[in-house]
Design goal:
heterotrimer, A mainly alpha (276), B alpha+beta (334), C mainly alpha (288), A: 276 residues, mainly alpha, 0% strand, globular, C: MetI-like fold, two-stranded antiparallel sheet, 13 helices, 3% strand, ATP hydrolysis activity (chain B), nucleotide-binding (chain B), Mo/tungstate-bd_C_term_dom (chain B), transport (chain B), ATP-binding (chain B)
């Protein structure tokens, strides 16, 4: 099936693909490089590419001035909390749909997906109002709940597709072997589904980390995550390129690293299994 | 210790009744095989006995106790699945120990039983491997081991050999039969392969469309099939059926004659025909004979040394004492 | 296909997810519907009573409506065109044998993981700034007058930023689809005498049809709702006010909740029209 490809052909492919890859990656690379420049070097014309005096000063300044650590902590709590809460609620639901399907299972799944399609702006004010009334505005717990809800359909859906790959006979064997429902899920299903659960968590942490509608509209100084922290640079502070770059690099680095591990799950999670 | 009784059991999925009212008793220590074409309800019947499906009406008794509403784990049955259903994340040892752990047995007893089962099944060297590192036959043994350690009232097998290759299947068939001889525990075995049924069973239950067509020992079924379906299903190659004037001679609507009960020759005989395909198996030769005027093809099983070829005109002599007679509704005429 | 016991357990275990999502969907939706039929100005008198379809009519007849529809369509259409065309090309390139394929893939996918506020700000300040941006340097290097990107070419600028974010998504999905194409099919076509371009047109493209549809539908749903990119760049000025942004301004900035809610209902209807097509494809796949 596989055919030998000449090295010349391969070299052309390689050069071409790397050129395009680097072009697409360039804005990120440029941001990272700029974060190590002084402000003067950052706006020098013509710009410095690699040969400048590398400095970590910007990172120190960003950390000091804007309480970066607090925003980071908020992001971690909100992304992690909403994902974990979502998984805890979704695992039993996905188990039900995958292993005890009924005539309505498909309808329920489709309906869950449809809630994901609801445009956020259409329900902005009601949520805003509910948040004010319940004292949830600018709290981490409020955002944890909202982000959990907007990602719950994806979590259920992904877990469902992973669970469906586990043969039902194994769970039946466990049932005959005397496992209770709790033991069946805890000792047999969950360990077998660990890779699937891990990918689900990974993708949803990424989605929650980058969510930028609710996090911008429902938080202020106290519970704001990194999305809000960066948005505050749209004011004149953004003109300090090196500092903007340092702040940006810190905001995206954790997710870039996580993201590289989750390429495959990305396709599955975001197309709801419609592309394999 | 393992007598299973089904009393007027039915099963419906929605409005479709897959098992009409059915009565069956499986005696303690018996090796019973449910056999039938795919979709005949044999696996469903097994799952009803296991408790993996609810019965729609009727009663299931295990050792005289009503088990109809008892959950699967409490029925004292063990099951070996078609896919073996081994837990991929556990070692062989943990797989076999799992039901005992669920029963909260103490560790010393668990170890004793697991080691015992491993010895019986030649798995001692593989106890610390994962199922993924085992061959098909070894996985099969682990699944059986997991069933044995529970010392169940009965073993349920759901087409356990269908995922193995032909050579291994014959070996495992023997192992399961020997296991039954040694344990003397009730076994219920589901298969679509009539050879497995014939070679392993004490008693065969032939099913079609959820209905029991006949229950009996392998030889009873072979010698006195109760109707056309059983006659055609049991025995390989298949029994020849002849209708029309030839059947009328025997006062029947249809007559059946097994391929091994017809002799072929060049000289005189009751019937004649032309050899189509001759399948030489070495020990036997199967002749598929056309232009007999009786049926489209008559299959004959002859000795391996009989040397007819394609196109030869030959004569056929049925053993008249081996002719089975059936009436218009397909039932055997005694 | 299971016992009654497991079926009732299943229903119980599904309940939390179903109830939560039902509440999440119905409560705000009903509130939005109610507000949309009211004159409701929280800072200027609060609930001023029912007004029928007034808000719906006013939202559509306001001078900001049609420009917003136009801006929305331009952004969605522009981004879709760029991401699908370049996505197909890029996916085909990445499918070729080469050295360092894994690394190139990572480089191409990376923008998807950058949070929207970061990518919008980086593009706005470090690339599109008419004095110090990289583009300005580039233009000057060729002796051209730098472009005032976000004021003179505001829509194309936004489209570039958003397309950069979504190109990885399209590429990744199309690459997955290309890799599932049976190599023997292409070899058969080659034996049948089809040159490369025809093989692409008659074999590869039809194979990608479904994946392209999925990319278009999913991106449309997300693109209709883009917010952060506009929020941190133009704040809706210079003709970049999309429907989403217009509704946001009505609701939170001018606190005209009734009017904004009517706009929200329009947005919901619009999203649902796209969603129906997407759900059909997903649903078909569920049966398979």
């Amino acid at each position: 099936m596989a055919r030998a490809v000449t090295n010349q052909r391969k070299a052309i492919n390689t050069a071409f693909a790397w050129a395009i890859g680097l072009l697409i990656f360039f804005p990120i690379l440029w941001t990272i490089l700029t974060s190590f420049k002084t402000e003067a070097e950052a706006i020098a014309s013509p710009p410095y590419f690699l040969f400048f005096d590398w400095t970590l000063e910007n990172y120190a300044v960003v950390q000091e001035r804007s309480n970066y650590a607090r925003y980071l902590w908020n992001s971690i709590v909100i992304a992690g909390g909403s994902t974990l809460l979502g998984v805890i609620i979704a695992v039993p639901a996905a188990w039900s749909m995958a292993f005890v399907p009924s005539k309505r299972t498909k309808d329920i799944l489709m309906w869950m997906l449809s809630t994901k399609m609801l445009p956020a702006v259409g329900v902005l004010y009601p949520i805003y109002l509910i948040f004010i009334k319940m004292g949830l505005l600018d709290t981490k717990i409020g955002l944890v709940v909202v982000l959990m809800l907007i990602n719950l359909p994806i979590i259920v859906w992904m877990l469902y597709t992973y669970f469906r790959e586990i043969p039902g006979e194994i769970l039946e064997a466990a049932r005959i072997d005397g496992a209770t429902l709790r033991e069946e899920i805890l000792y047999v299903l969950t360990p077998m589904a660990i890779p699937g659960i891990a990918s689900t968590i990974l993708l949803n942490v990424i989605l929650a980390w980058n969510e930028a509608f609710w996090t911008l509209n429902l938080t202020a100084a106290k519970a704001g995550p990194l999305t809000a922290f960066i948005a505050s640079y749209s004011s004149p502070e953004g003109l300090f390129y090196a500092k903007l770059s340092a702040a940006s690099t810190m905001a995206i680095a954790p997710i870039l690293i996580l993201g590289w591990f989750s390429q495959k799950q990305l396709v599955r999670g975001l197309t709801f299994g419609a592309v394999k | 210790m393992g007598r299973i009784t089904l009393d007027q059991v039915t099963k419906s999925f929605g409005s479709v009744q897959v098992i009409p009212p059915l009565d069956l008793t499986i005696e303690d220590g018996e090796f019973t095989v449910f056999v039938g074409p795919s979709g005949c309800g044999k696996s469903t019947l097994l799952r009803l006995i296991a408790g993996l499906e609810d019965i729609s009406s009727g009663q299931i008794r295990i050792d005289k106790q009503d088990a109809t509403h008892v959950p699967p784990a409490k029925r004292g049955l063990a099951m070996v699945f078609q896919s073996y259903a081994l837990y991929p994340h556990m070692s062989v040892r943990k797989n076999i120990a799992f039901p005992l752990k669920m029963a909260q047995m103490d560790q010393a007893e668990i170890d004793r039983r697991v080691n015992g089962a491993a010895e019986v099944l030649n798995l001692t060297d593989y106890l610390d491997r994962r199922p993924g590192q085992l061959s098909g036959g070894q996985r099969q043994r682990v699944a059986i081991g997991r069933a044995i350690v529970r010392e169940p009232a009965a073993f349920l097998f759901d087409e356990p050999l269908s995922n193995l290759d032909a050579a291994l299947r014959v070996g495992m068939r023997l192992e399961i039969s020997e296991l039954h001889k040694r344990l003397k525990t009730t076994m219920i075995y589901v298969t679509h392969d009539q050879v497995e049924a014939m070679t392993m069973a004490d008693r065969i239950v032939v099913l079609q469309a959820g209905v029991i067509e006949q229950v009996g020992s392998p030889l009873e079924l072979y010698r006195e099939p109760r109707n056309l379906f059983v006659a055609g299903f049991i025995g390989s190659p298949r029994m020849n059926f002849i209708e029309g004037p030839e059947a009328a001679k025997y006062d029947a609507h249809t007559i059946g004659i097994r391929p091994e009960h017809i002799a072929v020759a060049e000289g005189d005989g009751a019937w004649s025909g032309v050899v189509g395909v001759a399948e030489h198996l070495g020990s036997d030769t199967f002749f598929h004979i056309h232009e007999t005027g009786l049926a489209e093809t008559i299959t004959v099983r002859a000795d391996g040394e009989v040397g007819f070829n394609h196109g030869d005109r030959i004569t056929l002599s049925p053993r008249t004492d081996m002719i089975h007679r059936f009436d218009a509704s397909g039932l055997r005429i005694a | 296909m299971a016992t009654k016991a497991s079926r009732s357990a299943a229903r119980l275990m599904m309940a939390p997810a179903v109830v939560l999502l039902l509440g999440w969907m119905l409560v705000p939706l009903i509130m939005t519907l109610i507000f949309s039929f009211k004159k409701y100005l929280p800072l200027r008198g609060g609930d001023l009573g029912w007004v029928g379809f007034d808000n719906y009519v006013r939202f559509v007849t306001s001078s900001a409506f049609w420009p917003a529809v136009q801006a929305t369509l331009m952004i969605v259409g522009g981004v879709l065109a760029i991401t699908v065309i370049f996505g197909v090309l890029l996916a085909m390139l990445l499918d070729q044998p080469m050295w360092g394929q894994g690394v190139v893939r990572i480089l191409v996918i990376a923008p998807f993981f950058v949070m929207p506020t970061v990518s919008a700000l980086v593009w706005k300040n470090m690339f599109m700034d008419p004095v110090n941006g990289v583009f300005a340097h580039l233009w000057k290097a060729f002796g051209a007058e730098p472009i005032q990107w976000l004021t003179q070419a505001s829509l194309p600028s936004i489209i570039i930023i958003v397309a950069w974010q979504w190109l990885p998504f399209a590429t990744l999905i199309l690459l997955t689809a290309i890799q599932s194409l049976d190599g023997e099919q292409l070899e058969a076509a080659e034996m049948d005498g089809a040159p490369p371009l025809k093989r692409f047109w008659y074999i590869v493209l039809p194979h990608l049809g479904r994946a392209i549809t999925v990319v278009v539908l999913i991106q449309t749903i997300f693109l209709l709702g883009i917010f952060a990119e506009i929020f941190v760049t133009t704040q809706g000025s210079f003709g970049t006010k999309t429907l989403t942004y217009l509704i946001f301004q009505r609701v939170l900035e001018s606190q005209n909740v009734g009017l904004g809610s009517a706009g929200g209902v329009y947005a919901i209807i619009l999203a649902n029209i796209v969603a129906i097509f997407l759900m059909r494809i997903v649903g078909k796949n569920l049966d398979a």
